[in-house]
Design goal:
The chain is α/β, with parallel strands linked by helices. Helix content is 51%, strand content 15%.
């Protein structure tokens, strides 16, 4: 037996050592993540000041889950990186030092990093294609983020660092904690220095005040002594000046009394003048009122005289009588045009109108004077008119009876001929011919005995009557087809429920949909405020993937094919869009900010939902703003809430109770969905966070299961077309397009449709159908 060579032995030993190391690495358990302790407000301020120089936004700690080589480039690698959300991002990089399990600085799509080309400002990360492979994000170095000077390798973090943490915060707190300590010490030193300066300033101020008080006391003591000495010296002079001072005081007192009497006299005179002016004004006002009263009396007398004159002439008619007279005159002209009554003679026209003169036909009447009828003539005319109306009504009743009799006869004959056939050679042909003859005969009967007049009483031609009959038959066929489609509805064939998202501005409506879709629509809107209605389709497989944990917890199956969610604006200026969006929804989501409670547009949305009697659920959003909240988006929100600290639970309970009390003021009973035993009496509330993702799977689960429990009859699919137009706009390359929601039925290309326009109905043809990607 040949002995192995020494070089071969060394290779075998190295290979054995590698395998041993690999086995040990597999046996070792991966270190668990430890959540970072919450910072105090002072520490948060210090951390913000430290990160002020860094130039990035939205960069988080990501976990590398898989690593493989690029199929077309040897120097590139394809990574699967997760930031703690629902899905994983695919990143293409040329860094060879990254391995599976590393926690790295990951910039997802939509985040901002320093612009290396310009050297100034930031650039937004966008999805790109490198050598035929899509890359959604990038790995960042410390130099790119402005955290250190190492620009050759990716910034990595300890294994205990939580995934999804802000990269700047994780770097300062875990990698360079001394920076935070130094900044904290500097801030503390500055605070102590400021306090010492304030104390010294206060002490100096107190010393100055004490010194000033001492000087004032000293001056007061010196002034008192001088006054006493002067008093002794001038006592004799004062005694001599007493008679002179008394005389001067008497003169001054007399002068004051004289001025006082003059002032009193002036005031009395002004009061008398004021009273005289008031009396004169009152007299003039009474005279003016008397003149106006006299004018009104004269006007009433003239009006009464004119009415008496018209009453004597028989021309005084009330408003109702005038309207009745005009109506009768129009009806008479219609009867004259149809030839039912003879036209009026000239004398009758002159008598009714009072405009034509009787001339020499009436004795004693001058030329140009209108003929006046007596009461007997008026009564005779009224009797003749009533007789004509009665005769016309009888004629109509007779025609109606004849039509009914003809229709009954036609139905009787149709029943007699039904199923009857002679011994002809082809029974099917005989039946077809008989049915055709019967239909033609029925047509003749309908044409002969049907409605021969239009709405204005004009007689229709035979062609017009046939056209009217065809329209009625077409309408009857359409109604019969619609009834057949409704009868074919089944509980096993459901359509997608239409869900409308409502709420006050800045409560997180669009952000919730962005979190579910993993998009960034909200940042693209002007001022971050939604300006238009948007619709998103979520298929069943995507909902099942995102809600697997809560679905397994409750053990239910989904019966709906998906969800169509409509996002509406929350600003007070878009009331019309909110009304249009809520008018076609089957179920609604009312988003409420847990930090603010109900706000004006929230209350308006509740009114819209109450008016349409639409069921809805409440998303109690922004729970991540509760102090000390630890995000756990991979768990159902009930379990995530139970794992929080006691102070977080207490704050949530306080704010939750406040929101429930506000809803009770609006006449609504509400509770969290996992405690709701009666969904028809209490509204479900779901705690959510559009930033961290907590509660998103619970909200999707509730929206998917509620329709199949409460709205089965409403969401059963049928073939009757129900389509609502959301928006009409012009798109370059396509022309005029309409955003529509097809609730039931089908639309196909080259269909002719009719839509409502500002100037009447618009008839057009569908040139193309474009559906958004789910």
């Amino acid at each position: 037996v040949e002995k192995p060579k020494p070089a071969a032995k060394e290779k075998e030993k190295k290979k054995d050592k590698k395998e041993d190391k690999k086995g040990k690495a597999v046996q070792e358990e991966a270190p668990t993540e430890k959540p970072l302790p919450p910072l105090t407000p002072e520490e948060q301020k210090v951390l913000k000041d430290v990160l002020k120089k860094s130039v990035f936004q939205g960069v988080v700690v990501g976990l590398v889950k898989s690593l493989e080589k690029h199929p077309k480039a040897n120097d590139l690698y394809i990574l699967k990186v997760t930031d703690g959300g629902f899905t994983e991002a695919q990143v293409v990089t040329n860094n060879k030092l990254v391995e599976v399990g590393h926690k790295v600085a990951f910039a997802p799509v939509g985040s901002e990093v320093a612009d290396e080309e310009l050297g100034v400002g930031t650039t937004t990360i966008k999805p790109v294609k490198l050598k035929g492979v899509n890359s959604a994000g990038m790995l960042c170095s410390g130099k790119l983020l402005g955290l250190n000077d190492d620009g050759d390798k990716v910034l990595t973090f300890p294994p205990t660092c939580p995934v999804g943490t802000d990269a700047g915060e994780a770097f300062i707190r875990l990698i360079k904690p001394e920076v935070l300590s130094e900044a904290r010490e500097k801030a503390e030193a500055a605070r102590i220095k400021a306090e010492e300066a304030a104390a010294a300033k206060k002490a100096q101020k107190e010393a100055n005040a004490a010194k000033k008080a001492e000087e004032d006391a000293k001056k007061a003591a010196e002034g008192g002594g001088e006054a006493e000495g002067k008093g002794k010296k001038g006592k004799k002079g004062k005694e001599e000046a007493k008679p002179k001072q008394a005389t001067g005081k008497i003169a001054a007192l007399q002068e004051m009394q004289r001025k006082l009497r003059e002032e009193e006299a002036r005031i009395a005179q002004m009061e008398e003048e004021r009273k005289a002016a008031e009396a004169e004004a009152e007299r003039l006002m009474k005279e003016q009122e008397a003149e106006e009263e006299e004018k009104r009396r004269l006007k009433k007398e003239k009006k009464k005289e004119r009415e008496d004159q018209l009453r004597k002439e028989g021309k005084l008619l009330s408003k109702k009588q005038k309207a009745e007279q005009a109506k009768n005159e129009a009806y008479r002209k219609q009867l004259e045009a149809q030839g039912i009554v003879p036209p009026k003679k000239d004398k009758e026209a002159a008598a009714d109108g009072g405009d034509e003169s009787s001339g020499d036909e009436e004795g004693g009447a001058g030329a140009g004077q209108a003929k006046r009828m007596s009461k007997n003539e008026i009564k005779q005319r009224e009797k003749e008119r009533k007789d004509r109306l009665k005769a016309l009504a009888e004629e109509r009743e007779r025609k109606k009876k004849e039509e009914e009799a003809a229709r009954a006869e036609a139905e009787r004959r149709a029943k007699e001929l039904e199923g009857v056939a002679d011994n002809w050679e082809d029974d099917s042909d005989a039946e077809g011919d008989g049915g055709k003859e019967e239909e033609e005969e029925s047509d003749e009967e309908d044409l002969g005995s049907g409605s021969e007049y239009d709405s204005d009483g004009n007689q229709l031609s035979k062609t017009a009557r046939r056209k009217r009959l065809e329209m009625r038959r077409a309408e009857a066929r359409r109604l019969k087809k619609m009834e057949k489609n409704l009868a074919a509805k089944s509980r096993d064939n459901l359509r997608c429920p239409i869900i409308c998202v409502l709420g006050h501005v800045d409560t997180g409506k669009t952000k919730i949909l962005d979190k579910i879709r993993r998009t960034n629509v909200q940042d693209g809107e002007a001022g971050g405020i939604t300006q238009q209605i948007g619709a998103s389709y979520f298929p069943e497989w995507a909902i099942t993937e995102k809600t697997l944990a809560v679905k397994n917890l409750h053990g239910v199956e989904y019966n709906v094919p998906g969800l169509l969610i409509i996002d509406t604006p929350g600003h007070e200026s878009f009331t019309n869009l909110r009304t249009r969006g809520s008018s076609l929804c089957d179920l609604a989501v009312l988003v409420v900010d847990i930090m603010h409670g109900l706000e004006p547009q929230t209350i308006e949305s509740i009114g819209l939902l109450k008016k349409r009697k639409a069921p809805f659920v409440i998303a109690l959003n922004k729970i991540d703003r509760l102090y000390g909240w630890v995000s756990k988006p991979e768990l159902p929100v009930q379990q995530a809430l139970e794992m929080q600290e006691q102070n977080v639970k207490d704050e949530f309970k306080q704010r939750y109770d406040f929101a429930v009390s506000q809803l009770a003021e609006q006449g609504l009973n509400a509770c969290v969905f996992y405690e709701n035993k009666d969904v028809r009496s209490f509204i479900n509330m779901v705690p959510t966070s559009a930033i961290s993702g907590d509660g998103m799977m619970d909200l999707l689960f509730l929206l998917t299961t509620l329709p199949s429990r409460m709205l089965v009859d409403k969401i059963m699919y049928h073939e009757n077309l129900e389509c609502t137009v959301l928006e009409v706009k012009a798109i370059e390359g396509l022309g005029t397009t309409m955003d529509v929601v097809v609730v039931n039925g089908r639309l196909t290309e080259k269909d002719t449709i009719v839509v409502c326009g500002l100037d009447g109905p618009i008839t057009t043809q569908i040139r193309s159908l474009l559906s958004p990607q789910p």
